[in-house]
Amino acid sequence: MQVDNQAVSYLESRKLVKRWSGPWPAVVNTLLIFGFFYATWWIFQDPRGIMRMYTPYVGYMVCRWLLILFIWLAYIFDFWPFKRTWLNSAHPLLKGVVLTAVSVAAMLLLIKGFFIEILGNFGIAYFNPDRLMAMGLTDFYSIEYAAEAVMMFAAIASWLSPSWVVACENAPWQKLTQPTRGITIVIVTFFLSMIVYLLTMHSHMAILFYPWQQYTAITPPYWEGFANTVSGNFHIAWIMCCTVVVWVYESIWQRYPFNLIQTDWLRRTSSFFGIILVALCMCFFLYYAQDLVWGEAIRGTRREMAPDWRWLHVGETAIFWLVGVLYLSFYGGNWPTKFSRPVNVLLRTLISLAIGAAVYIIYYKTAHLFLGTQKGFSHPQQFPMIPTIWLINIFLINMWFMDGWPGWKAVPKTAEELQETRNEVVASDVRWTPSLGKGLLAGAAAGAAVYFAVITVLPWIGETVTIVK
Amino acid sequence: MTEQKTPNRRDFVKGAATGAIGGTLLGMGAYSYSPLAYSRMSKVARQQADFGACRSVKVTSISETSWFNNAHLVGDIHAAGGLLVDQYSINWAPFGNGKGVAQGSYKDGIDSIKKMIPGDLEEAWATQQKLALHPDNAGGYSCLIEVEDLDGTKHKYLLDAGWSYDWMDQSFKREAIDQMLASGEIEALILSHEHFDHFWGFPVVMKYNNKIPTYAHDGFYEEGMQYIKDSGYEGDLKVIDKELTPIRPGMMAIKFNVPIITRVYGEVSLAFNIKDKGLVLISGCNHQGILQMTSTAYQKLKYDNDRFYGVYGGLHISPFEDWDPKYDDLVISLGKWDFERVGCNHCTGHLTAKKFIEAGYPVVKGTARFRTSSPDYLGNGDTITF
Ligand SMILES: [Fe+2]
Ligand SMILES: [Fe+2]
Question: Which pTM does this prediction carry?
């Protein structure tokens, strides 16, 4: 049993080494991943395919909950109940199949067992489609509404669950063994997600029904004035940004700069709230950027002119960046690594933004041709988060469950490499000097200048560049 | 010397890289959503194209009931894979092939009826009744628009062709549209968009006049363009490819480019300038959104009193009696535009109409005849004059 309770988690304990030199591992994995993506997309999601879960909310719910289950299994439970010896020795393909199957089974149990049967029967009616149908809604929308509620829960958990590992370093339960630690953190983050859900999405669900369910939820919602909409998409915006920033912070930023804080509690709290702050900056910028490109949103309109859609699109845009971030980190070896950490971080940020922007443009130019989705940015059933999260899930299966097979294989880290991993959590590679201070000021001025340059250029881009005809 | 300088320079670079990200984020967070950021946004100047004026516009709702049983319609869409599924593949009449939901195609459908349209629509529809899903659920959307010029002369236009051959033929006969078409009294047919319930009844119009000038959005898919040909059309097809297309003094077609459910692209709506009253907007489904339409009209058109006077048609808000908080945004915001008369039906949604009435908007009620289900709608056979 004690093999599952090591001080170092499985993902930290292994090093992925390329099986072939040169770009071949990345090329082969990329091709395989896209093949797998398309095959599974067709089987499960595509509106022209076999299971057609892209209704869209059912497919949306499934891809988000899968993501959470992967995070729980790999990050929070550190692969418990699977033994470390098995993880180290089983063939990556077998691991991929078994671990994915376990996640899918757990997901079905959670959605059907917990949300629909327990919560939907004894707590909040809208989680159970059968209850909605019995009250006279069409079966299609009954399922969509319930799926939307279940899905939103996952969106919140996709930020809070990994945050507890990445930002809070599992504190104060880091010393517990598995599965106690996993269960504790899942329960705590689930509880927090529930609170955030009630504060952000319950009102959104409550005004789906006529009349507004004013005795059970705050209606109109408190954010109406600030966000210029009663839609909960406002919360999707910043929560998705949080989800993205957690992974940015964990992967391409290597927990910089908060890892410089040596005091444990201060580092953990600053990371947790720092992630939220960075996410809010992103969120407001992405909203404003759309207003600059497409003109100021008009409340009550639909599609790309409507504030509720603009907020949603903030989250969608953020997820495109996440695709770039994870691709660079997983398949690009987190390139570059040769400079000092701050320089690496800046360059990776720029590179991942470029990849994200490219995926964004390619997606909107071509997705309707091969994903079975609709043309245009803002079709009400256009949810780019579904294919992007589906793709990210496949990245995770490949990297977390399959050790990057076939391009990579796992080898145990040496004592030295393990120390390096620890140095990432609490770092001391950047120290205060007057030169550093001067650099900070100069950099901040340059950053602000870049920001103002970008918002000056955006209206012009809106007028001259057409991504979707 | 160099030993001193190098670490200094390295620290400076570390600081600068960190500061660059921080400074950008600071700008993003502190400035982006602030009132200051919006005060510098240039207000777009209104272009206000002068398109003349008319004295009045009368609309007769020939049919606004596109389908009769919402559960069947939504059920078929659901079974076919949701709202993105191509309408020609769902297996609805007249493009059914007997192979079941989502297995249909334009080709199979048209092959089964091509010889019968537009000459023998009864036979064509009867054929399809055996092949398609819920053929009796089909109704259609179509209305007659009578524009009175400033000098008193009247001009008739047909907006949309409906869906079911049976139902549309009956409805046309009820409102004497068959005769107006045959005599050439109706000057043009405007196809608002390619949706089944607005367009698939096209052969019924062809039955009475297959040379009628017809306007269609340039976003019609290949199947749609082929259907126009296969229905025996021999007239002058005007493909609308500009945002504004004047039809006659005081009447303007506005083209919107929006992707729409069941794989349809774009809608054309109509704007009228009524002398001394203001602007009237008439739409098929208004998939672009009513407030998108008012905003466009506000920016692009010149109209009397600079006032929104009336609106008629499907406002596509809760067509399947579904709901979303963004619809509440619309219900809350519509008041700002201060319409004097709102005549809504079809895909507006009964719940929306009810919420409009509760919000105190001037909804013009109907008579709930000929299978229209609620007097909150301007229903089949009802008229409204602006
Ligand atoms: Fe319609
Ligand atoms: Fe429509």
Answer: 0.88
Q: What is the DSSP secondary-structure string of B112-137?
A: HHGGGTTTTHHHHHHHHHHHSBSGGG
**Domain annotation covers residue B224:** yes
Tell me, yes or no, whether B169 and B23 share the same domain: no
Model pLDDT, residue B292: 86
Query: Which of helix, strand or coil describes residue B199?
Result: helix
Report the gap between the CA of B309 and the closest CA in chain A (Å): 19
A132 in contact with B, Cβ within 8 Å: no
ipTM: 0.92
- Contact predicate A4/A78, CB 8 Å: yes
Question: What is the average pLDDT score of chain B?
Answer: 92
| Contact (CB<8Å) A442/B291 | no
CA angle A402, A254, A166 (to 5 degrees): 75
Confidence (pLDDT) at B5: 61
B147 inside domain: yes
CA distances (Å), origin A294, targets A289, A290, A354: 9, 6, 21
Distance separating alpha carbons of residues B160 and B142, to the nearest angstrom: 5
Domain coverage including residue B220: 52-69+138-385
Q: Tell me the pLDDT tens digit for each residue of A219-271.
A: 999 999 999 999 999 999 999 999 999 999 999 999 999 999 999 999 999 99
* Cα A141 to Cα A400: distance, rounded to the nearest angstrom: 36
Do B279 and B337 belong to one domain?
A: yes
Contacts of B44 (CB under 8 A, 6+ apart): A295, B299
**Mean predicted lDDT score pLDDT of chain A:** 93
With respect to residue B78, please indicate whether it lies within any of the assigned structural domains: no
Q: Which range is least confidently modeled, A170-184, A365-379, B287-301, B372-386? A: A365-379
Give me the CATH number covering residue B185.
Answer: 3.60.15.10
d(CA B379, ligand 2 centre) in Å: 17
pLDDT per position as a tens digit, B183-230: 999 999 999 999 999 999 999 999 999 999 999 999 999 999 999 999
State the average pLDDT over residues B287-299: 89
The burial class, CB within 10 Å (0-12 / 13-18 / 19+), for A450 is: middle
State the nearest Cα–Cα gap between B329 and chain A, in angstroms.
5
User: And the tokens for B259?
Assistant: 């992707």
Mutate to test the interface with A, among B24, B38, B294 (most CBs of A within 10 A): B24
pLDDT for the residue numbered B321: 80
A443 to B329: CB separation less than 8 angstroms, yes or no: no
Number of residues that this document lists for chain A: 469
Task: Evaluate whether residue B167 is within a structural domain.
Answer: yes
